[in-house]
Amino acid sequence: TDRSAQQRPIVLVGLMGVGKSTVGRRLAGRLRLPFVDADTAIEEAAGMTVAEIFERFGEPYFRDGERRVIARLMDGRPKVIATGGGAFINDDTRALILATSTAIWLHAHPDVLAERVGRRDTRPLLRGRNPRQVLSELATVRNPIYAEAHIHITSNKSPHDTTVNAILQAIG
Ligand code: S3P
């Protein structure tokens, strides 16, 4: 199949720890497309880390900046974009992603996610809390929403390269 026919950006969505950035970077390499990590783009635009934005301005402010940065990333040359776990949960950001990209949900069991983020994660939603419990609660609330993505890929235990191959197969 002709992958150059892939016009839309590819946007990876899913919970923290599922491997969106690692998988996205490798997927972009295989497709010879640029890769952009949306959280990194937000940090560059704000001149602050995601944790600092949450701390100083709160989550709603972060979500608004996140939507604007993702909207900007959708323009221009097609690329692979890894989003922060909450981006697709925001109604406006999700509508934008669904309308303009191929949205891929990377899905894994909360036990697998907790193992991948480790015990001392600095993400604002996990810091000082039990990651396994938070991730399990977030999965309950968010999975039905992530399920609106165009393509679903499970990455339980599998190495990231296996996940990349599954995506390549799914997008043909
Ligand atoms: C968040 C996920 C994080 C980051 C922020 C909020 C979330 O991104 O955007 O901490 O709400 O799930 P990752 O999924 O890249 O960790």
Name some characteristics of this structure.
five-stranded parallel sheet; globular; Shikimate kinase; 5 strands; binds shikimate-3-phosphate; 12% strand; alpha/beta; 172 residues; Rossmann fold
Overview of the structural elements:
The chain has one domain: 3-Layer(aba) Sandwich (Rossmann fold), CATH 3.40.50.300. 53% of the residues lie in helices and 12% in strands. The chain is built from eight helices and five strands; from the N terminus they run βαβαααβαβααβα. The chain has helices spanning 20-31, 38-46, 50-57, 59-74, 91-100, 110-117, 131-146, 160-171, and strands at residues 10-13, 35-37, 80-82, 102-107, 151-154. α2 (38-46) crosses α4, α3 (50-57) packs across α4 and α6 crosses α7 (131-146). The protein starts with 9 loop residues before the first strand and ends with a helix. The model has no long low-confidence stretch (mean pLDDT 94). The structure holds shikimate-3-phosphate. Residues 16, 20, 39, 50, 84-86, 123-125 line the site of shikimate-3-phosphate. It is found in: Cytoplasm. Its EC number is 2.7.1.71. This is Shikimate kinase. Monomer.
